[in-house]
Design a protein that fits this description.
The complex is a heterodimer of chains A (about 260) and B (about 325). Chain A contains ten helices and ten strands. Chain A is an alpha/beta fold and about 260 residues long. Chain B has about 325 residues and is an all-alpha fold. In chain B, a hairpin with a 2-residue loop joins strand 2 and strand 3. The chains are: A alpha/beta (about 260), B mainly alpha (about 325).
């Protein structure tokens, strides 16, 4: 579904991502993990066109998206959330999700200026669909709330609802559980499972290992921008290279205690 | 989603800014003549309406999409001179000239918009400032065509053979045009395109990630705001019967931006209020003669200190309604 070949990105001589190749199949939960600075967020920015790769190619469902502007990645069916929130703070929660439906709406300029009956109808549908999504992520109580008055945990879920509104075929989640308490993390895990069951392919970047190990079908481990390991939760957990990268070589022999 | 569904309660419809505000504005336009004692008051009211049309358009660009322009007086001037020249030199019917000049400005805004709107913040301000200055210099220097700094006369606007003349006629023309402008702007803002504009104002990257082509949306709103300015410029030319390059000057651009900021960014009615206050105030302050500008400046400083988000949004928030 999503295929990456020899993907690299450097920032002034620093290789944030280097020679990365992998493939993500449909209907799975893929996690990307690695120590801080391993290049995870850079990779997500490359996969959504926010950054252009220095080298390599990105294919989505057979189409080459390398170098395309960000909105074209969205049009192709790639949705995402952000690690540092990128909420539209000048809108209500509901309007944020309605904005997420941008790609699903046909709205000519004349229709917008004259507010044609067809547009008014489409707007009502958009509103209903956005309400359903807010309910799906458990935020229906916040629908009319101004986004800048909502708590952090709710905003994290609001980003997911907004991304889902565009009906992406693949959803990239950048640390959805960061800054959340254990209860909220469990809710996010349940949400991710619900998404996968509904047929959305999920790519998860996350530091919360309990969450990652619990929901992932496949895990890709990055270190210094390169692929360190790839496989099921069990395989990755027992890979000596992964243990070394996370805990240092000295601890490699006594990892039994460290498993979450 | 039953109890809190905001789509269903039709009772709240009238409270939305789109319909309720428009009805209130229509009422004000309809009733204002009761307070307009003579032609001078009518003249001021017409100027308020013309400025308000420009500000409603400019607010779409500045207030909603978050893109500054210090060159909109240039579009206003081109609309005015374009209309006047198409009638005077090429014998176009006045209405066709107004439409033609507005369309010409739209084309110009489209052509310069793409490269200019790649810039952000201060750099965009500089680029639009340059555009406005070029327009005003050309209008002042091409004296064989435009009459130069002395300006040029404009023949009256005739609609189906009837010449529109006199303040009382023009009041209703401008009032209707203002209501139309507000209606169009409100519709746009409440549409998916309006949401796209507000989205790229707060987070361009998030807007792009949900599929919004931000460069394109910026150009479109730039063109729309230029069209509002050019149309008001053309109307002004026909109304006053005489135009000078001062209307296209940098100072006029700054006045227009000030009106938008004063009334309240991202508030269509704020733009109307801003245009009204800052058009009427200088007229009212002529009683204090040479201190006029001092008092005007003081009033503006005090307003911005106490209404930091602009008059209308701050007051709306204070009285418990979400400012918009």
């Amino acid at each position: 579904m999503l295929r990456v070949e020899g993907l690299s990105r450097e920032f002034g001589g620093v290789h944030a991502v280097e020679g990365l190749s992998f493939e993500i199949g449909p209907g799975t939960v893929h996690s990307i993990i690695g120590p801080n600075g391993a290049g995870k967020t850079t990779l997500l920015n490359l996969l959504t066109g926010v950054y252009r790769p220095s080298a390599g190619r990105i294919f989505f469902e057979g189409r080459d998206l390398t170098g395309a502007p960000t909105y074209r990645f969205a049009q192709a069916g790639i949705g995402r959330t952000f690690q540092n929130l990128q909420i539209f703070f000048n809108m209500s929660a509901l309007e944020n999700v309605m904005t997420g439906r941008h790609l699903r709406e046909r709205c000519g300029l004349a229709a917008a200026l004259l507010r044609t009956p067809a547009l008014a109808r489409a707007e009502r549908e958009c509103r209903e669909r956005a309400m359903q999504l807010l309910a799906f992520v458990g935020l229906d109580a916040y629908a009319g709330a101004a986004a800048d008055a909502m708590p952090y945990g709710a905003l994290k879920r609001l980003e997911i609802a907004r991304a889902l509104a565009g009906e992406p075929r693949i959803l990239l989640l950048d640390e959805p559980a960061a800054g959340l308490n254990p209860t909220e993390s469990v809710e996010i895990a349940a949400l991710i499972r619900k998404l996968a069951q509904a047929g959305t392919t999920v790519v998860l970047v996350e530091h919360n290992m309990r969450l990652v190990m619990g929901v992932s079908d496949l895990i890709l481990v990055l270190d210094y921008g390169r692929k360190l390991s790839e496989g099921s939760a069990e395989q990755v957990r027992n890979d000596p290279k992964v243990i070394e990268a996370y805990l240092g070589a000295a601890h490699a022999s006594e990892t039994e205690d460290a498993r979450g | 989603m039953n109890a809190s569904d905001p789509a269903s309660p039709s009772t709240r419809r009238w409270a939305t800014p789109r319909t309720g505000g428009l009805a209130a504005l229509a009422l004000i336009v309809a009733l204002a003549p009761l307070a307009l004692a003579n032609n001078y008051f009518y003249d001021v009211a017409i100027l308020v309406g013309l400025n308000a049309i420009v500000c409603v358009g400019l607010n779409l660009l500045i207030g909603y999409a978050g893109q500054i322009s210090l060159g909109h007086a240039g579009f206003f001037g081109l609309g005015a001179y374009g209309s006047a020249l198409l009638v005077a030199r090429w014998d176009w019917p006045p209405l066709a000239a107004l439409a033609g000049a507005t369309a010409g400005v739209a084309l110009l805004a489209f052509l310069v918009g793409r490269p200019i709107l790649r810039l952000k913040g201060h750099y965009l301000a500089m680029a639009t400032l340059g555009l406005g200055i070029i327009v005003s210099i050309v209008l002042a220097n091409e004296d064989r065509v435009t009459g130069g700094p002395d300006g040029m006369p404009v023949s009256p606007l005739t609609v189906f053979g009837v010449a529109l003349q006199g303040e009382r006629t023009w009041y209703w023309v401008v009032g209707a045009c203002l209501l139309l402008a507000v209606w169009l702007a409100q519709n746009l803002i409440e549409s998916p395109r309006g949401r796209a504009l507000r989205a790229l104002h707060t987070s361009e990257v998030a807007a792009e990630v949900v599929g919004i082509d931000s460069a394109r949306q910026k150009v479109v709103v730039f063109v729309i705001s230029a069209v509002f300015a050019a149309f008001a410029g053309g109307l002004t030319a026909f109304y006053t019967g005489f135009i000078t390059p001062a209307k296209a000057s940098f100072m006029h651009s700054v006045e227009l931006v000030t009106m938008v900021v004063f009334g309240g960014m991202a508030s269509t009615f704020g733009a109307v209020v801003g245009a009204a206050v800052l058009t009427v105030l200088p007229q009212a302050l002529t009683v204090v003669k040479e201190y006029e500008m001092v008092v005007l400046g003081a009033v503006m400083m005090v307003t911005m200190i106490f209404f930091p988000r602009g008059a209308v949004p701050t007051l709306a928030a204070r009285f418990g309604r979400p400012g918009r």
